[in-house]
Amino acid sequence: MFGVDTSEFIVVAIVALLFIGPKELPRVMLSVGRWVGRARGYARHFTAGIENVMREAELEEMDRKWREQNERILAQYPADGHYPEPEAVPADPASVMLPSVMPTPPAEAFEDEPTLPLEAPAARTTIRARRLNGRCHDRRHRRHQGPADRSFDRAS
């Protein structure tokens, strides 16, 4: 924490025990703990203040860059400027092929796909279901087994 090694800490503890005494040592350690706690609190508060100042400076820098970029864009494209009209929109929106839209594959591509409704997958047999069906021969589940299974366990 403060550059104190374990061996150094043990030496300080033994010296404190010798000079302060076992009777006063708990009270002294309590006051030292309070002082260390206060110092940590002050350090934490100071660090948080520095981090807040740095965060605010970064936000101001980002705001400045955003304003400069915005001014540059507005100067390049003024609001009263004359821009070319967009191409006429065709009457059938389905005939327009956007570059990001993939064409629909032919129906033959879906022939091997399963049809709806899909069949439910087979249920897994759980230990509880095996016990209820009388197929569980595990010793841990002896209380759930029938009398025939218990006689089998006694024989082994």
TrEMBL record:
Biased segments, Basic residues type: 127-145
Keyword terms, alphabetized: Membrane, Protein transport, Translocation, Transmembrane, Transmembrane helix, Transport
Main localization category: membrane
Segments of skewed composition (Basic and acidic residues): 146-156
Gene3D superfamilies: 1.20.5.3310
Region span, Disordered: 80-156
Pfam families: TatA_B_E
Membrane-topology descriptor: Single-pass membrane protein
Keyword Transport tagged: yes
InterPro entries: TatA/B/E (IPR003369)
Name of the protein: Twin-arginine translocase TatA/TatE family subunit
Residue stretches spanning the membrane: none
Subcellular location: Membrane
RNA-binding keyword on record: no
